[in-house]
Amino acid sequence: MGLLTGLLTLPLAPARGVAWIADRLEETAERETADPAVLRARLAALNRALDEGEIDQERFELEEERLLDLLEGRPPVAAPADPAPRPPGSH
């Protein structure tokens, strides 16, 4: 990039920075979503949430199916509105 081009496009630097950060966040999220260890940990947390009564059976089954689909490499059918189990006392 030449000096003149750099000076002329300087006002766009913040937008380019935000786009770069968004790309890195997307890559990280995709990598974590596909990581079997992360998916198994989420399944374990989901089972604990069901055992402790934090979620009902219907929500458990929807999220379990979605996580198992991801674990097996299939695209999930539909994501529930609130996929993460809530910590105790946050209801």
TrEMBL record:
Extent of Pro residues compositional bias: 82-91
InterPro entries (UniProt xref): GvpG
Domain of life of the organism encoding this protein: Bacteria
Location of region: Disordered: 72-91
Protein name: Gas vesicle protein
